Amino acid sequence: MIIQVFGSGCPTCKKLFDLTNKAIAELNLNTSVEYITDIQKIIDLGVMSSPVLAINNKPIIVGFVPDLEKIKTAITNNL
Amino acid sequence: MFYPVELLANWLTLSIFSITPKTLLAETVNFFIYDTVKIFILLSVIIFVVSIVRSFLPPEKIRLILSHKNKYLGNILASLLGIITPFCSCSAIPLFLGFIQAGVPLGTTFSFLVASPMINEVALVLLLGMFGWKIALIYVASGLVIAILSGIAIDKMKVENLVESFVYQNQANLKTDLPNMKCPDRFSYAKNYTLDIIKKVWPYIIVGIGLGAWIHGYVPTDFLARYAGSDKWYAVPFAVLIGIPLYSNAAGIIPLVSALTEKGVAMGTTLAFMMAVTALSLPEFMILKRVMKTKLILIFAGIVGIGIIFTGYIFNWLLGIR
Question: Model ipTM?
């Protein structure tokens, strides 16, 4: 499973990255979160807002930072 | 509509803080409480509603609409859609790349880039709360006109060669399967977004309204008229120039300038100043340098700046005759 956070380097994007890390730690998942700041990659994904949480190259959360529980459910639903 | 807030402000000023009625201090405190409560109520309601609307119209859908429209219609639509899109400078680049690489014309993209920060919900609430609906409407309408005309002008200038070459080398992926949002998702998105914005802007608003209340009470009426009245031709361009570096504080500046208009700054000058604060932002220009040449940023800033100055003169002239 590939978990990626895409952002343009703004503080909001960093927050989503930190929360996602926390989420996989609490879910005891044996994977790591990749943080990508190449904006072209966001466009290639088909979206235009940052930050983005993508699992296996599918955008799951686009354009905002939800709370930790939401991220956890989003990850478990898309495993 | 805000009568209960008025009662609350009176009660707090006179009974709780026990300030002697009808004094300058009582009036200033009352003004501050009333405006602050009113603005925060308006902010919560309007941002929440706009967020719900936006959850149905994310930029990815807007792009799909814009890539199929002819040029002039595209400029108009792009400006209108810019109103509901939030704009923080961190989304300027993905929006720009996403639009251009999907085949949206450069002029249309610029219409969107002008309207989106200039006509945002926070500015709208503050204009509505501090100046009333007429001025808010004038602001929105002239903002739209500036956005549409700037986009058309940039389109006519054929400046595609001033966009960094890598931008046109990629094609955007248009097969977006955006995450499906259900009703509770929209609500929680809107709630989070509203709280987020309020958390970000409240200190500026409090300081802005506080300074405004102080000016309202303690600075003599028409004190500024001899420097910035409608007969002073240099006031408008000067206001636009000082507006450029002030973007991050737009939320605090509107309550402050509303107090300044009371003290004699002409309304057109105030409008131009607020438009410069929101639409011409130095940090955004720095970020845009990653996708376009400096010359294009200067052209963009120049056209929008001229539009704003022109608007300032028009309304100084129109609203000056009373």
Answer: 0.79
Query: In the numeric block, which tokens belong to residue A72?
Result: 């956890």
Q: What is the pTM of this model?
A: 0.85
Q: Give the length of chain B.
A: 322
Distance from CA of A7 to the nearest CA of B (A): 9
How does pLDDT run across B275-317, given as a tens digit for each residue? 998 888 888 888 888 889 999 999 999 999 999 999 999 988 8
Query: How far apart, in whole angstroms, are the C-alpha atoms of residue B317 and residue B313?
Result: 6
Q: Which residues of B56-78 are buried (b: 16+ CB within 10 A; e: fewer)?
A: eebbbebbeebbebeeeebbbbb
The answer, for A2 touching chain B at a CB cutoff of 8 Å, is: no
Test the A interface: residue of B91, B112, B287 with most A CBs within 10 Å: B91
Closest residue in B to A51 (Cα–Cα):
B91
Digit-coded pLDDT (tens) for B94-151 = 888 888 988 899 999 999 999 988 888 888 888 898 888 999 999 999 999 999 999 9
Q: How far is A63 from chain B (nearest CA, A)?
A: 9
Residue count of chain A, please give it: 79
